[in-house]
Automatic annotation (TrEMBL):
Gene3D superfamilies: 1.10.30.50. This is HNH endonuclease. It comes from Planctomicrobium piriforme. InterPro entries: HNH_5 (IPR029471), HNH_nuc (IPR003615). One of its GO terms (molecular function) is endonuclease activity. Keywords: Endonuclease, Hydrolase, Nuclease. Residues 40-91 form the HNH endonuclease domain. Pfam families: HNH_5.
Length: 121
């Protein structure tokens, strides 16, 4: 990983500048539409400047560009969770996780019922 500005190519410097400008633009849009709050586009949690991430709607790995039409502000958790996925792909992952949580929670009461029934017998 390059850490010194001198090591960056002009294209990398331009991308860093564009990302920073997009973050500032989206931050101001978020504040204007959320009563002064900077909110994650996906989960709506409050964020500070240092917690803001740019999330690509269409990931760069699938041809998505780093421009105002393809990026939103998101929190770190949403950004990490969505990473490399399209919105549809991410929602499918979340549906799978939700189904698994429901399956696990539905098992819990059954176990307790069994334990109660065994204790009463
Ligand atoms: Zn979020």
């Amino acid at each position: 990983m390059k850490v010194h500005v001198e090591e960056l190519t002009p294209e990398e410097i331009e991308l860093c500048t564009r990302r920073h400008e997009l973050k500032m633009l989206l931050r101001e849009q978020s504040k204007a539409t959320n009563g002064g709050r900077i909110a994650c586009t996906y989960c709506r949690c409050d964020m500070t400047n240092s917690q803001m991430h740019l999330s690509h709607i269409v990931p760069p790995s699938q041809g998505g560009q780093t421009d105002a039409e393809n990026v939103v502000l998101s929190c770190g958790q949403c950004c990490d969770s969505k990473f490399g996925r399209t919105l549809d792909g991410w929602l499918q992952k979340l549906d799978t996780m939700r189904a698994e949580v429901c399956r696990l929670l539905n098992q819990q009461p059954r176990k307790q019922e069994q334990a109660t029934a065994e204790a009463a017998a």
